[in-house]
What we know:
By secondary structure, this protein is mainly alpha-helical. 56% of the residues lie in helices and 4% in strands.
Amino acid sequence: MLDLTPEEKKVILFLVVISFCGITLNNLAKLNHRIKKLFCPQVRLTRIDLNKISLEELIRAGCLPVKTSQRIIAYRLQHGNFSSLDVLKKVKGVGEKRYNKLKEIFFVE
C-alpha cells in the first residue's frame, strides 16, 4: 500500500511519538493542577491588595483553595483589615510555606 523508505518511516514514527507525548501532557495538565503549573506558569504583573479583594476575585485569582480563600475573607470581616501580611499566618490553612508564596502575590496598604 505505502512504499516508504526507512528514513520516511523513522520520520513518521517520530511525529507519532511526539504527538502522543503532547496529547498525554495536555491531558495530564487538565487532570492535575500541579502539572499544569509546570507547563503553563502564571505571570503576575501586579500584586493584589488583600484588604480590597473580594471573595470572588480571590477565588478567580487561583492562588488559593476555595476554603482558604473563604477563611481569609471571613477573618478580614471578623477582625477588620489586615494591618500587615504577617497577620495572614493566623488564618487557618496558611502556614509558613504557603505564606512565603502568598507574600509575593499580595500586599497590604
